[in-house]
Amino acid sequence: MRKVLADCSASISELKRNPTALLAESDGAPIAILNHNKPAAYLVPAETYEWIMEMIDDQELSQIVEKRRQDKHKAVSVNLDDL
Question: The whole model's pTM is what?
């Protein structure tokens, strides 16, 4: 058995019939698309997907920052007036 990670769900048949109505009805929440009562995919509005991608980018950037903070002892001091 697989866990459904969405409060809303619809069958593939419902998705084929009217995908726009499903998105409108979910009010921005992800929709589990079920095939034989098992999640086959998740449908998210474009805004939600874009937000997720931004969060992933932010997480990756924070990991880079943390790594560089750990290497701070290797940094070279620079005076901005000399640049």
Answer: 0.71
Largest CA distance in the chain: 68
Three-state DSSP state, 10: strand
Q: In one letter, which amino acid is 64? A: I
pLDDT number for residue 77: 86
SS (H, E, C) 29-72: CCEEEEECCEEEEEECCHHHHHHHHHHHHHHHHHHHHHHHHHCH
- Cβ neighbours of 31 (radius 10 Å): 22
Burial readout 44-67 (b: 16 or more C-beta within 10 A, e: otherwise): bbeeeeeeeeeeeeeeeeeeeeee
Give residue 7's region: left, alpha or beta (phi > 0; psi -120 to 50): alpha
Helix (H, G, I), strand (E, B) or coil at 3: coil
